[in-house]
TrEMBL record:
<feature type="region of interest" description="Disordered">
    <location>
        <begin position="34"/>
        <end position="63"/>
    </location>
</feature>
<dbReference type="InterPro" id="IPR005754">
    <property type="entry name" value="Sortase"/>
</dbReference>
<dbReference type="Pfam" id="PF04203">
    <property type="entry name" value="Sortase"/>
</dbReference>
<protein>
    <submittedName>
        <fullName>Class F sortase</fullName>
    </submittedName>
</protein>
<dbReference type="InterPro" id="IPR023365">
    <property type="entry name" value="Sortase_dom-sf"/>
</dbReference>
<feature type="compositionally biased region" description="Pro residues">
    <location>
        <begin position="47"/>
        <end position="60"/>
    </location>
</feature>
<dbReference type="InterPro" id="IPR042001">
    <property type="entry name" value="Sortase_F"/>
</dbReference>
<keyword id="KW-0378">Hydrolase</keyword>
<dbReference type="GO" id="GO:0016787">
    <property type="term" value="F:hydrolase activity"/>
</dbReference>
Length: 207
């Protein structure tokens, strides 16, 4: 079971993101998305920038990650009837989602953003997420008109069968953000075998 803001999420993380329809159609030789290097992992190192004070709650409307050319609207995500996290429509490749029953990006706690790595037509919104590096900036436009600025302090790859629920989804005593998509090895039978997770914390804001 997986806990996000005191709500349990069951099942494999974002399984619907991980089928790899583009790879199934075109083969995998030259199409695998970039994967994070060991140098970008936590490894017990301190954050690259000090945290900023928490913002009041406000739903997010858009996420930008300049280093990997992401500029995408955000939709609210809930839970499926089986208790797993829902996903954005696969056909809308430049759309990401946030878990709207949990923490809003910028307030104290762990906010969750998720998106597809690809769809049947090719790379999707978070195709290059695994190429992100420590120190990169993530910007989240919020409905109250503010801009929450996050700094990446780790990028990790986890096998789906060894996903560290508490590390990714657990409560935080400062404003944190997780951005999740699929990654790792790929097989036609099971799709992607893991998840890329970006860990970031709030380091600033603009009104």
């Amino acid at each position: 079971m997986r806990r996000v803001a005191n709500i349990l999420i069951a099942g494999v993380t974002l399984v619907a993101l991980c089928l790899g329809a583009w790879l199934l159609r075109n083969g995998i030789a030259s199409h695998l998305p970039p994967q994070p290097s060991a140098a970008q992992a936590h490894r017990g190192r301190p954050p690259t920038q000090p945290p900023a004070p928490a913002l009041p709650p406000s739903p997010p409307d858009r996420v930008r990650i300049p280093a990997i050319r992401v500029d995408a609207p955000l939709m609210g995500l809930g839970l499926t009837p089986t208790g797993s996290l829902d996903v954005p429509p696969a056909e809308r490749k430049n759309l990401a989602g946030w878990y709207e029953s949990g923490t809003t990006p910028g307030e104290k706690g762990t906010a969750i953003v998720a998106g597809h790595v690809d769809n049947a037509d090719g790379p999707a919104v978070f195709y290059r997420l695994g190429a992100l590096e420590r120190g990169a900036r993530i910007e989240v436009e919020r409905r109250d008109g503010s801009l929450a600025l996050f700094t990446v302090h780790a990028v990790e790859m986890y096998d789906a069968h060894a996903f560290p629920d508490e590390k990714v989804y657990g409560a935080a005593d400062r404003p944190e953000l997780r951005v999740i998509t699929c990654g790792g090895g790929y097989t036609k039978g099971t799709g992607y075998r893991g998840n890329v997770v970006v860990f970031a914390h709030l380091t600033g804001s603009r009104p």
